[in-house]
Amino acid sequence: MKTNLKHLLNKEIKEGVEILSIGTELLLGNIVNTNARWIAEQLSILGLNHFRQTTIGDNAERLSKLIKEISMRSNLLITTGGLGPTPDDLTTESIAKAFNQKIYARESIWEGIKMKLSQKKPYITNLSLKKQCFFPKDAQIINNPKGTAPGMIWKPKENFTILTFPGVPDEMKVMWEETAYNFIKSNFSDGSIFFSNTLKLTGIGEATVSETIKDLLELKNPTIAPYASLEEVKLRITTKAKSVSEAKLLIKPIKKELKETFSKNIFGEDNESLQSILVKELIKRNESIVFAESCTGGLLSSYITSVSGSSKVFKGGVIAYSNELKHSLLDVPINLINSFGAVSEEVAESMSIGVKNKLKSDWAISVSGIAGPDGGSDSKPIGLVYIAITGPNNKIIKIKKQYNPLRNRNEIQRLSVNDCLNSLRLILLS
Amino acid sequence: MKTNLKHLLNKEIKEGVEILSIGTELLLGNIVNTNARWIAEQLSILGLNHFRQTTIGDNAERLSKLIKEISMRSNLLITTGGLGPTPDDLTTESIAKAFNQKIYARESIWEGIKMKLSQKKPYITNLSLKKQCFFPKDAQIINNPKGTAPGMIWKPKENFTILTFPGVPDEMKVMWEETAYNFIKSNFSDGSIFFSNTLKLTGIGEATVSETIKDLLELKNPTIAPYASLEEVKLRITTKAKSVSEAKLLIKPIKKELKETFSKNIFGEDNESLQSILVKELIKRNESIVFAESCTGGLLSSYITSVSGSSKVFKGGVIAYSNELKHSLLDVPINLINSFGAVSEEVAESMSIGVKNKLKSDWAISVSGIAGPDGGSDSKPIGLVYIAITGPNNKIIKIKKQYNPLRNRNEIQRLSVNDCLNSLRLILLS
């Protein structure tokens, strides 16, 4: 029978779903809790109300107490962590103890664990691994295809269900997708979904975006939320609806308005990246591209080659880090480097022409700059970057950027790569 | 007067420090909670016991209730989020309400906010910003040098203090460092510190590491905790001590034992990376290096050039993604590619010799493989990678790797880069 969250809410003042992350390493700040974010997103997709996340250490007593607390106020608890073989892994027994239940070995699971281990790690014979096959009597097992620790679906009392997962993100995710998703969907979801569509902008700051669409940001359904990172601003449009098609209809007019407002800045949606849309566009045009990198040191090429299928358009590149190689590999005249310096419009232009001719392609991008933390001067401060783009007609577009010199090396490299890619995008658009 | 946490623990069964992250975007899974990790680490450094983290949405009623709960069981609460100007930002008023207190405008703060805005964003005149200058009467302000929203230090009742911070990580961090650190240290820390030292291992799995040092993992002070990522295993040794020098003494024998046990696998400590130790070693030897990349597409070069000072040893590289460029830029014979294929020991070897000769360096690394998801075959499956390293004596070391074909493109590229770097490290060691 389907549990109706709304109904329960009225009857028992229970508040839906909670996530509990278990692990002293989280409290010590050793690792970032990416699991909670991922599960939160999954719950959103299922349209479930999720009101609280808690993180707690590997302490049996505190864990039992907290789980009891949660069982009083929520219907569904998702836990991660503490399912492994070490003495610190206390989740299953602490959950059982919270409801005065015992856990029992399941021999079939133990056989499965031994088989998994004998294939992969024949040297592990540690009996402590057996711990992982102990569960409360009436718990349903969540199979773990990627590791040894299974999870469980357990309903220790009326209107309260616990799902446990290991803390290893890869194992947790596949267990969610193979088992938990369907269980939660058929037992807890009221059939509505949250649907999100994200527009990605670059070349504009978050403050300007927010100020421009101040009124839209106050909408209630759909909602629009801006998120900024170093290179881009994302606008996430979210709506609750009965189906994906209804959601898309609700989102459509908002999306249209945003696309008109930020026409030049929007480069893609959802999982698209600047590099993926460039690869797609160049494939469509049947045009090839090459790079000559100095200050970005291979990062520009690695962005393009992170895209599956990039070999159809990206022929390769040269990382001419030293002046010697700028000359020998890219035919940049020595006297040009001596007169203007390696970081100059003239050298960037020459690198771009050089790499295009040598590597014989339709497009070439070159980039030379000062990423720091050393090498800056009054006339050429850290963050000064020259980009040159040569196209099929051999027309050269030159771009000069001065990033904030207080930015670190990695940030300046990433901003440079972003401007290389975005500049090419704007050229291809026009 | 200094609050003695231990004493309070006995008297009031209070449990130290908690972190509360406020924001519906966290519950929706839109962003990862990096603030909680950072603060957790800071509390560790201050030697404070921190037992619980909670995340909750922008809902005034739930927030007030939760803060009341926390004030019953903890001495110190650190909150992030909800201090901004929008209607969703409810933290200060909800905290005040939890203790039946009112908040009042502080005109001097409002003047400060207006001044900050007129310098930076003259177009923002929104009066809702004034919200950010409302605080309980006896709250002490935490100045925000990077943004408009100040935080507060407030003691609404005996043995309970709240510190509030905005959710923007950069603002939160500088406020912590400038104001909160000293306040917490002088009011809550018992003078001891947690000190950590991390050893970094590669070329060995977490299971093998854990199995090998099973006994050490059960130590209580110092503790040793393993953390695994795709490329490496970290062993974090942590100790509580009166001073850094005492901590180092406690850690010394453990570190010695680990270094003996995993001599070949340990490549560095703490913030060191494979690339940073290679750059250091090559600078010491006064030897240069170049790369010829195929399947890694620039990623290997970008790793080396992420290290400040790498230009002293890294001359540059060639990304010969197409066969045409392998021939034209690296002198790989066309018939070699035709006979053995681009992904072969023979071609990797030829690429390595070619790039070393062309770019004139002491060391050269080449890498060619199948990163997927396309391009695999029965004889050359996805994950097959050839690496060749040529040294000053022109001796060539050839390495063949077969990564799990189920790994994604990015993982195979990263594993390849890691093996390129680690293979060179082992050669330089021997």
Descriptors for this entry?
homodimer; 430 residues; alpha/beta; Molybdenum Cofactor Biosythetic Enzyme, Chain A; Maf protein; 6-stranded mixed β-sheet; 5-stranded mixed β-sheet; 15 helices
In terms of topology, how is this protein built?
The structure is a homodimer of 430-residue chains.
Chain A: H1 5-12, E1 17-22, H2 24-27, H3 34-45, E2 50-56, H4 60-73, E3 76-80, H5 91-98, E4 103-105, H6 107-120, E5 134-136, E6 140-142, E7 151-157, E8 160-165, H7 169-188, E9 193-202, H8 206-212, E10 223-228, E11 232-241, H9 244-261, E12 266-269, H10 274-285, E13 289-293, H11 299-305, E14 314-320, H12 323-330, H13 334-340, H14 345-359, E15 363-369, E16 384-390, E17 396-402, H15 409-429
Parallel strand pairs in A: 1-2, 1-3, 3-8, 13-14, 13-15
Antiparallel strand pairs in A: 4-5, 6-7, 7-8, 9-11, 9-12, 10-11, 15-16, 16-17
Helix pairs in contact in A: 3-7, 4-5, 10-15
Textual characterization of the structure:
The structure is a homodimer of 430-residue chains. The first copy, chain A, is built from 15 helices and 17 strands. In chain A, a hairpin with a 5-residue loop joins strand 16 (384-390) and strand 17 (396-402). In chain A, helix 3 (34-45) runs parallel beside helix 7, helix 4 crosses helix 5 (91-98) and helix 10 packs parallel to helix 15. By secondary structure, chain A is of the alpha/beta class. Helix content of chain A is 41%, strand content 24%. A six-stranded mixed β-sheet of chain A has the order 2-1-3-8-7-6, sandwiched between helices. Chain A folds into three domains: 5-188, MoaB/Mog-like domain (Molybdenum Cofactor Biosythetic Enzyme, Chain A, 3-Layer(aba) Sandwich); 193-269, Alpha-Beta Plaits (2-Layer Sandwich); 274-429, CinA-like (Maf protein, Alpha-Beta Complex). Chains A and B meet through helix 2, helix 3, strand 2, helix 11 and strand 14 of A and helix 2, helix 3, strand 2, helix 8 and helix 11 of B. Strand 14 (314-320) of chain A pairs antiparallel with strand 14 (314-320) of chain B, so a sheet runs across the interface.
